[in-house]
Design brief:
This protein is α/β, with parallel strands linked by helices and 318 residues long. The protein contains twelve helices and eight strands. 43% of the residues lie in helices and 16% in strands. It is globular, with a radius of gyration of 28 Å.
């Protein structure tokens, strides 16, 4: 056999061997064992990282209907640990997606070891309506929502693992619920809180009034007194109050009522801080103001009693 013929034979044999190798590798990749291994690897990766943002819906027995909420989970949340929860309430005309879509909340919270729950509160003022029996929004948040979150997520299921905060209507709601249920929360935060909502309807914006009359009833109604944060602050209570964090923009139309509520907290020697900085009743202000609020919540969730270690701070005189 000539050298040229031998060379051609070797090349042909090499090509046949290569084709067989390629076919073998393709069959190996398509085999059930390999596919199962790939799925197992993917499942393992998913087990290590849960979605940062999760939307949920559940049946509220207090409202008799389904309600939505959004949850912001910390990165790499599957570590087997129980996490504290911040319930973050939206304002009037808002919904459960507001905080996540109108601020950079995800960025600010990415390194915090807490679950942030943003429930849908309609325009309810987080109150059991005085005129619509089915609208029991206070019960929905204080009972149904907390029970749902504790059942669905690995949470710290006592007051030391819960905080509540909000803006405007949600700021009022967060403080009111903390005053009514101090056994549930270690921290209550308000940005631009509408603290005069239940009693002084004549001082509020006209577009608020119709809804407020529906929620709190007419002047002199029992619902107004029972849901007024100034009155609640004087009511007897058995559990210690949470730490109160208040902030309001210096150009906000709720500035006076925020100053008044901070003064009442001070007169009772309760643990609180009040921040008054430039800004109005706007998302630009709330995007900025939520950052120090989150840090304060994180501090409250620490191993040290917040009421003993966080100093009273007023960043504006009044």
């Amino acid at each position: 056999m000539s050298d040229r013929v031998l060379q051609c034979f070797c090349i042909a044999a090499s090509r046949i061997a290569m084709k067989k190798l390629i076919i073998f590798l393709v069959l190996l990749l398509l085999s059930p064992t390999t596919v199962l291994a790939q799925k197992s690897t993917s499942a393992g990766a998913a087990h290590q990282q849960c979605p940062l943002v999760q939307d949920g819906v559940f049946r509220s027995s207090s409202l008799g209907r389904d309600v939505h909420y959004r949850v912001l989970m910390p990165g790499g949340c599957d570590k087997g640990e129980r996490l504290p929860v911040l319930y973050l309430l939206h304002g009037i005309y808002g919904d459960y997606k507001n905080w996540d879509t109108k601020t950079r909340l995800e960025t600010y919270a990415k390194d915090l070891r807490m679950i942030i729950v943003m429930p849908d509160g309609d325009d309810s003022w987080y109150t059991n309506s005085a005129t619509v029996p089915a609208d029991k929004f206070e019960d929905y948040v204080a009972t149904d929502l907390i029970s749902e979150i504790d059942k669905k997520f690995k949470t710290i299921r006592d007051r030391h693992g819960r905080a509540i905060a909000g803006l405007s209507m949600g700021g009022y709601g967060a403080v009111k619920l903390a005053l009514k249920y101090p056994e549930l929360f270690v921290f209550s935060g308000s940005l631009s809180g509408a603290f005069n909502a239940a009693q002084n309807l004549d001082t509020l914006r006209p577009d608020f009034r119709a809804r407020l009359l529906e929620v709190f009833g007419s002047e002199g109604s029992r619902a107004r007194t029972e849901n007024d944060v100034f009155t609640l602050l004087n009511a007897p209570h058995t559990s210690p109050y949470p730490y109160f964090y208040l902030a309001c923009g210096s150009a906000d139309f709720f500035l006076d009522t925020n100053r008044a509520f901070a003064q009442q907290l001070s007169s009772k020697n309760l643990p609180y801080e009040y921040h008054e900085t430039p800004g109005g009743h706007t998302w630009e202000y709330w995007d900025s103001a939520v950052q120090p609020l989150l840090k304060a919540v994180d501090f409250a969730f620490g191993n040290h009693p917040v009421s003993l270690h966080m100093p009273v701070s007023k960043t504006a005189s009044h």
